[in-house]
Design goal:
The chain has 367 residues and is mainly β. The protein folds into 4 domains: 80 residues, no CATH class; 77 residues, Immunoglobulin-like (Sandwich), CATH 2.60.40.10; 97 residues, Immunoglobulin-like (Sandwich), CATH 2.60.40; 85 residues, Sandwich (Immunoglobulin-like), CATH 2.60.40. It is 11% helix and 43% strand. A 5-stranded mixed beta sheet has the order 8-14-13-10-11, with no helix packed on it. A 5-stranded mixed beta sheet has the order 22-26-25-23-24, with no helix packed on it. The N terminus is likely disordered.
Length: 367
């Protein structure tokens, strides 16, 4: 009964005479239709209905006769002909729907409005546009959308969508590992995420390069901390291996959809070989085998970049000195020093990634 009385009152209001002339007539019509309080119809209670200026124009259009002066916002708008009144019909689609996603989120607004001659878009991040179909990139946050459609007869309609756009913040991927420089004899590292987390939950994916010579050889492990061991031979050369962390944040949007936002960072882990082997025999006969005194693993292992090598006769006379050896040709060649066959002594001192070393030994030169 309540809804029926409201409909009766609304029809009565909409069918009020609309051939009003002058501001006073319009005001009188509004006062008669938009009374305060409640009207009793039979035993039913009907809430007060306040017709708007739009209601007046729609009613005039429905009648299809005469003329009206429509009250808009308390003032009187220009005369409009009831027959053939064309109102703007705002309508648009978004290239992303629902309008939510990870930052930066770019949305194209595709206009399908009808009877529109001018446009105005207003977003709560401060961006505005008068283009029919603008495109805008949003940072992380929640934004209101307002679209106003105008036509040349002075009519305006709008679409207002509070908190229509939700943009989720990406995490910031960061990590560290220990030891900072692993060695071939123990090529295991502990990876630890230091990422700045966002969203409801976080996920961490690690891609570890397994073969230094193959940039596509990766193995994936998961967790905010993860351990990884390289399968290296005892005599493996020093090499660097790429480690990639993908930090993924899970966001549940207002629509209920799950959005995975991510950030990626890469670092290289340098693995050295600190295993050194010292020869005890040198045969400088030019066959390319044991022609020089070369410490195996020093150059290719990369563990001791700061080093010093001295060679002495059995009388204590130094016949060779080298510092910071970084090439196989930098080692002692008895041929180059014109050293005869006999017993020699060496002393090798170095400072490296795993500490200091001071090693001495005996060399036999056989010709």
């Amino acid at each position: 009964m309540r809804s029926r009385c409201c409909i009766v009152l609304l029809v009565a209001v909409l069918l009020m005479p609309l051939t009003l002339v002058g501001q006073g007539a319009v005001a009188g019509a509004k006062q008669a239709a938009a009374h305060k309080g409640a009207a009793d119809v039979g035993n039913a209670r009907c809430d007060t209905i306040h017709p708007s200026a739009d209601d007046s124009v729609r009613a005039a259009s429905a009648l299809g006769k005469g003329g009206a002066r429509a009250a808009v916002g308390g003032s009187v708008a220009a005369d409009v002909s009831v027959e053939g009144v064309v109102r703007p019909l705002p309508n648009f689609d978004a290239s992303v729907y629902p309008m939510e996603g990870c930052e930066p989120l770019t949305i194209d607004f595709i206009n399908h409005s009808q009877n529109v001659d001018a446009h105005r878009w207003v977003f709560s991040d401060g961006f505005t546009s008068t283009e029919p179909s603008p495109s805008h990139t949003f940072a992380a946050g929640t934004y209101d959308l307002r679209y106003y459609a105008y036509n040349d007869n002075g009519s305006v309609d709008s679409i207002v969508m509070p908190s229509a756009i939700s943009v989720f913040k990406n995490p910031t991927a960061r990590f560290e590992w220990t030891p900072s420089i692993p060695v071939v004899s123990d090529p295991t590292i502990l990876l630890q995420s230091q990422s700045l987390a966002t969203g409801d939950t976080m996920q961490y994916l690690w891609d570890v390069q397994t073969d230094a010579a193959d940039t596509l050889s990766f193995q994936t492990v998961e967790g905010d901390t993860a351990s990884f061991t390289w399968p290296l031979a005892e005599d493996a050369d020093a090499a660097r291996y790429k480690v990639r962390l993908v930090a993924v944040s899970h966001h549940h949007g207002p629509s209920g959809q799950l959005h995975l936002c991510n950030d990626t960072t890469n670092h290289y882990v340098y693995i050295i070989n600190d295993l050194l082997r010292y020869p005890t025999l040198v045969t400088p006969n030019g066959d390319g085998i044991n022609d020089v005194f070369a410490i195996v693993g020093l150059v290719r292992g990369g563990a001791y970049p700061v080093n010093m090598l001295d060679i002495y006769t059995h009388w204590g006379v130094r016949v060779f000195h080298a510092e910071n050896i970084e090439d196989e040709n930098d080692f002692w060649s008895p041929e180059a020093t014109h050293s005869p066959a006999g017993t020699y002594f060496f002393r090798f001192r170095a400072l490296g990634f795993t500490g200091m070393i001071d090693h001495s030994g005996v060399i036999e030169v056989i010709r």
